[in-house]
Structures are given as structure tokens and as C-alpha cells.
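Protocol step 4 of 6: structure prediction from sequence.
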Amino acid sequence: MSTNPLIELKDLGQSVWNDSIDRKLITSGELKRLIDEDGLSGVTSNPAIFEKAIAGSDLYADQLRELAEQGKSPQEIYEGLAVTDIQSAAGVLEDAYNKSGGTDGFVSLECNPLLANDTAATIEEARRLWNLLDRKNVMIKIPGTEPGIPAIEQCIYEGININITLLFSLHAYERTMEAYIRGLERRVAESKPVKEIASVASFFVSRIDTAVDKELERRIEQSSSEEEKTKLQSLMGKIAIANAKVAYQRYKQVFHGERFAELKAKGAQLQRPLWASTSTKNPAYPDIYYVEALIGRETIDTMPPATIVAFREHGRARVTIEDNLDEERRRLARLEEIGISLDQVTAHVLADGVRLFVEPFEKLLQTIESRANDIGNRPRSSGVATD
């Protein structure tokens, strides 16, 4: 009997979300097929994903024309297009949301990345997008930057579902969990319900190895000691997984501990870890390297389409998240011993991650402006087919 490793992940307690969205995914029925056949139970988006979707498809042309003729700005047009896709995807996923009791079946939309370092503006943006989407199974994405942490707490307090994105360091993850719990505790103190509030903490994985491996390779090239080279090579491609596994241990301590137990008794949901950036950036590593290493209960893996296909074809589903924990901790310790600060690495990739969202967002607005101008200069189609 043939098996589907993606369905097996679901049986092991890990949700699979699609790290991509475009209009064709929804209108073609592909999203529903992924849900029905592969057990997919969520969708994530970001400015880079929408830039590729809108720039690469004519399916947005009619709505773009309509919004442009209403005198909408490029950002307003983008929001109109994005909200339509997010709402449509949320509709397709509504059954998954209901079957899970409101713990799965979500679609995420990013706050304007230009606001990543502005707490007040991020709160206002999250409120506005939440009200604009008007769907119970959507999440607003807020980055785990220093200014983002108080914004997360406030939004949770206000009852907004939040996907905390761009998490790299254990320190930032600690603060993220605290912000979620404090937001819920503030609601409980005011006798407000907490049952239907959902949040995930998106821990980015492969980007850490990309940064650490670069420094390790530099040191290997400079070293004249074979022993030292072997020591450095033993850490290549290992740090991101070790970092995520240690984060999962902290998750268990917090969300299965006494403090959260009081909130759980009132219906509060776990803030599950979400493994993001699990596609393999280094061709020397297997294409499902990070997916197979981070399988565990109460987690989510958001995979880009190519990774979903790869895991369906040759993935092995077994719980791995707690394998070799002592060795993983030793790897992190050895990294510090050789003078590579993981805190400095994660601070760098966080700043770079914000930039990598800002640049496609600005490019997206430019593309929309150009296409709106182009559409405005073309006559309307009569809708009558010609030979």
C-alpha cells in the first residue's frame, strides 16, 4: 500500500502549511487538493511571495484595473489584491479550522515591513489588517524585532491572532512566548475570553546555517591545522537544527508548565513553534534536510511548494525533534568556544530578514504602479471572443 509522508506528519502531530500563495493556487482547486490529499492545514505569505504572485500572473489584472480606476494608491491596490487572496484561502481552509477546534487552518498576512521597528505603527497596522480581513482563521504577521515584542503582547490582548515571524535567537523566542502569555493574562484579569485567540512563533531555520556556514568556511580556508579544520567542518550545517531543537525544549517547559496551565484551563491555545525557512539553501544538503530533522508534536512546518513535493515523494516521517539533544547542545557550546557568537549571527540574520521583506515590498509597489499605469493606457476589452 502506498503511503503519503505528508499525511504521516499530520498523524505524528505536526501540521504542514504551504509557504506560498497566489490566485491560481486558489482558483485552480490546487489548494483544496493539497488539503484533501496531503493534509495541508494552513498557508503563509510574505511580501516576497506576493511580489512574485502579482508580478507573474494576469489573474490580478481585472481587479488591479478596477482599483486603479478608483484612484487607489499602489499600497491600497496591493492590499486589495492581497486581502482577496487571503480571504479566499481562508474560506478554503475554514473546514480545517473548524475540524481542529480553531487551532489550525490559518492563513497569514504580513504587516507592512517598513513598520518593523515602530511599535505603535505596527499595532495600528495589525488592527487595521485584522478588521479588513474579517476572518476568524487568519493571522497577522509581526516580526520578532525588539519593537515588535510589545506590539505582539498588545495585539494578543486585543484578541488578534498573531504569527510572530523572523525569529532566530532563543532570547527573542523567550520574549515572544512571554508576550503571548502576558497578553492572555491581561485578558483573563479583565474577564475577557481567551479561547479563540491563536498564535504561532515562526522560527526561521536554514538562514542560520547559511550565515554560520559562511563564517566556518572562511575559518577553514584560513586554518593550517587539520585538527582545527575537522572541528570546524563538524559544525557545518548543524547549528540551525540544534538551535531549533533547543527552542522546542523551551517551548515544552513554558507551555506545559504551571503558569500556562492556568490559562489553558480557561481555554487558551498553545503557541506552537512554526519551522520556517525549511527549504535547503545549500545544494550540498538533502532537499528535505531541515524538514526531516524537526518533526515533532505540537509543531508546524511551513514548506514552499517544491519542498512539499519533495517530502511527499521521498520523505521519511518519524519524530526527530528530540533526537541527540545532548549532542545538539554540545554543538552550540562548541560554536561559542571557537569564537562564533550565535547571538551576533542571529542579530545579523534578523536585520537581513527585515531587509529581505522590505526590498520585495518596495519592488511590489513599483510593479503595481507600473501595471496600473499600463492598464490605464489600454482600452477595455469588449469581452467578445474573436477568431
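Step 5 (inspection) to follow. The domain at 5-207+240-322+348-376 is CATH 3.20.20.70 (TIM Barrel).
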